[in-house]
Amino acid sequence: MPVEFPGIGGGDTRDGPETAPRPAPGPRRSAARSVRAHRRYGWDRVLLASGSGSAAPARAAAPPVNGAGKNGEPESPALKVITTRHPGRWVAAAVIAVLLAMVASALITNPAWEWEVVGEFLFAPSVLRAVVFTLELTALGIVFGFLLGTVLALMRLSKNPLLSSAAWGYIALFRSIPLILQLLFWYNLALLYPRLSFGVPFGPAFFDIGTMDLIGPVTAAALGLALHQAAYAAEIVRAGLLSVDHGQREAAAALGIPRTRQLLRIVLPQAMRSIVPTAGNEIIGLVKGTSVVYIMALPELFYQVQVIYNRNGRVMALLLVATIWYLVMTSVMSVAQHYIERHYGKGRA
Amino acid sequence: MSAAMVDLKAVHKSFGSLEVLRGVDLQVGAGEVTVIIGPSGSGKSTLLRTVNHLEKVDSGSVTVDGELVGYRRAGDRLYELSEREILRQRTRIGFVFQSFNLFPHLTVRQNVTEAPTSAQRRPKAEVEALAVRLLERVGLSDKIDAYPRQLSGGQQQRVAIARALALEPKVILFDEPTSALDPELVGEVLDVVKDLAVSGTTMIVVTHEIGFAREVADTVVFMDEGRIVERGTPAQVLDAPRHERTRLFLSKVL
């Protein structure tokens, strides 16, 4: 410990009070050493030894001379820690607080928001039905999107070049077409194919059915959302599967665990760790994404508030109603996501 | 040695243009412990992985307990078995990895019971009892409900050994079981392996622990550049090597 203490000569430990409060280099270690030394020799011996040239132990032994020497236990000087001040943070916090207050005041005091109208329509039956329908569309889009997406991901990871390039082509195509365009295609499919027939490919048909009867507006919307979502889900699932260490699948194979069981019990649960956060993003995106379905005149939330404000003219208040419901839905989903992530994080904490 | 538990004949294996195994013959009798040593890149891990068909051989044959591994023979042709058949064969061949490869999202108990229940379809109660016994045997009874991440490397490898034993395999393959461990944890794993050796388990162990080889092996095999250079008792191979390459290798690791 080659530390110079101005004013303390090497080994000069007997000069009383003013040396005592100085922090010894490495207080913990020297305290420990003092204890050992004390137990073995008693303080007198240590002081003697320190007088004979070894500087570090001398300093270590110094405090007891003034402090706890009498009752036998050494006392390292109690040092108070003063944390760094952050005046900038306080200023920034004050600025934010003022801005928040301004926003709140602007929202509350401006009568143009028409909070009483918001209150009137927030729980109106037609709005609640629209919220439920929005959730249904989201669920259909996510469930079928991720089912198809998982199949596409497995296809892309397949060793068969036709399977993997077909999946690649699907993903490239459906990621390139705006959702709103795709919805219109499905909605107007009857213009291209008035009747759909089911049977042997290129062979006889068993029965056929009018396209309009099979694919109504709701089906078209769900189909469009699911097919669109599948393209993104495929990449999310594929990334998740790739994130699982190769050794996991190898260990499962070496243990003779059946193929599907390997996937469902060993690989997918681990892939979920990286799938869930991104999938959560997608679901929340889709809750809001369903609003484009309004072009098909389906009574989801956004379409429904438009219907109402076209009737009563309270545009801002009703847009606010929609905003509040979208906020509520996504917030609930964020909380759910937190718990799902915790479930799949088992054994990782 | 017609009654060999493991019988490798003229095994060849290439990765692209690199020939990793150049005609390996190896017989391991029932209850015997064979230790394979050799420099890295000598093909010893690849050889071990051909025994349970984690690596397919290019030519030659691998037989475990009289059953051809990974193939069905008809005349002078070998037809590769379906994945289901191969998986069934692997339940009879335990494998312990260098990096443990425990399933991190499953508890120690679930790690041990997974394969016997899903691959061998044995009753759950029987497998649970077996897991308790095996974890006791490797000295980890108190960790049965822990997750792998909560265990030290040595403990994880002991769980991995229990997991392999749970299938009641005819032979256990160890691929450098202590190479990923901190030095002070090597002993506890080797003690478990030794215990298995004493109890008559057929084993092939790839390792760099020469002391372990001397103590436990019935046969020591020295491999270099995809071939078996020399084999014999530990005394013959480790103390009186006949080949220059063996001597050179031993002088570096001892």
Automatic annotation (TrEMBL), chain A:
It is a multi-pass membrane protein. GO terms for cellular component: ATP-binding cassette (ABC) transporter complex. This is Amino acid ABC transporter membrane protein, PAAT family. It comes from the Bacteria. The chain crosses the membrane at residues 90-108, 128-155, 167-187, 315-340. Residues 131-333 form the ABC transmembrane type-1 domain. One of its GO terms (biological process) is amino acid transport. One of its GO terms (molecular function) is transmembrane transporter activity. Residues 1-37, 55-74 are annotated as: Disordered. Keywords: Amino-acid transport, Cell membrane, Membrane, Transmembrane, Transmembrane helix, Transport. Belongs to the binding-protein-dependent transport system permease family. Residues 55-68 have a biased composition (Low complexity). The keyword Transport applies. SUPFAM superfamilies: MetI-like (SSF161098). Its main location: membrane. It is found in: Cell membrane. It holds the Pfam family BPD_transp_1.
From TrEMBL, chain B:
GO terms for cellular component: plasma membrane. Residues 6-250 form the ABC transporter domain. Keywords: Amino-acid transport, ATP-binding, Cell membrane, Membrane, Nucleotide-binding, Transport. It is found in: Cell membrane. The keyword DNA-binding does not apply. InterPro entries: AAA+_ATPase, ABC_ATPase_HisP-typ, ABC_transporter-like_ATP-bd, ABC_transporter-like_CS, MetN_ABC_transporter-like, P-loop_NTPase. PROSITE patterns: ABC_TRANSPORTER_1, ABC_TRANSPORTER_2. Belongs to the ABC transporter superfamily. It holds the Pfam family ABC_tran. Its EC number is 7.4.2.1. It is a peripheral membrane protein. It comes from the Bacteria. It comes from Streptosporangium subroseum. This is ABC-type polar-amino-acid transporter. It catalyses: a polar amino acid(out) + ATP + H2O = a polar amino acid(in) + ADP + phosphate + H(+). GO terms for molecular function: ATP binding; ATP hydrolysis activity; ATPase-coupled polar amino acid-transporter activity. SUPFAM superfamilies: P-loop containing nucleoside triphosphate hydrolases. It is an enzyme of class 7 (translocase). PANTHER family: AMINO ACID IMPORT ATP-BINDING PROTEIN, GLUTAMATE_ASPARTATE IMPORT ATP-BINDING PROTEIN GLTL.
